[in-house]
Structure formats: structure tokens, C-alpha cells
Amino acid sequence: MQFLKLLFWCLMAFLAAVFTFGNWTNVSIQLFGGLVAEVNLPLLLLTTFLLGFVPTLVYQHWLRFRLRQRLTAAERSLETERALAAARAGEPAAPGTAVPVTPPPPAAIPTAVPPGVA
Description:
Blueprint: H1 2-22, E1 26-30, E2 36-40, H2 41-90
Antiparallel strand pairs: 1-2
């Protein structure tokens, strides 16, 4: 699998090099104030690609970081709740406190049977 990834990236680099050599022309860009910039086409395409890609990449990394932190906080909270529940289960219930009622298992719940089907 590693060989296929390496082959893919080598192919992409080769195609980028062929594109660069085939399109090495100057492009005029009209700037503000009547300024004109002469830029090579491959450099212009790389710059526009990076202007769109880098902010998206930074946003995705930031979002992933925040979700990872929220997951860590939720796991920490869950462990605390489990520890408290285990501590409560080991102690006898104090008088006057409500004991949680567990629901019956699904097999014990009666089901409705239509008439004529038995």
C-alpha cells in the first residue's frame, strides 16, 4: 500500500512538472491604482490554490482540536459519574431517599395481540 501512495505522489509531481514547463508564461494582473503585475502562470495557480486550501486546512485542524477536547472532557465527566455511582452502590441507602427503580426486562412487558391471533 505504501508503494501505491509513493507511486501516486510521484505521478502527481511529474504531472505538476509537465504542466509547469508547458505553461511557463507570464500573466498580467491588473492591481489597484493602475499597477500591473507580471506573474508566471504556475506561480499564480499555486498561490490561488494555497489561498483556498490553507484557511480550510487551519479551520479543519481547529475544529478537530476542539472536538477532541470536548470528547476528553466528556470522557472525564463519564468516569467521574461512574466512580460516584460505584461508590453509591457500595453504601447502604439512607432512610428517606428514593431508591432508583429499574425497568422490567423487555420479555416481561406484555405485548398486544390482535383478536383472532393466538
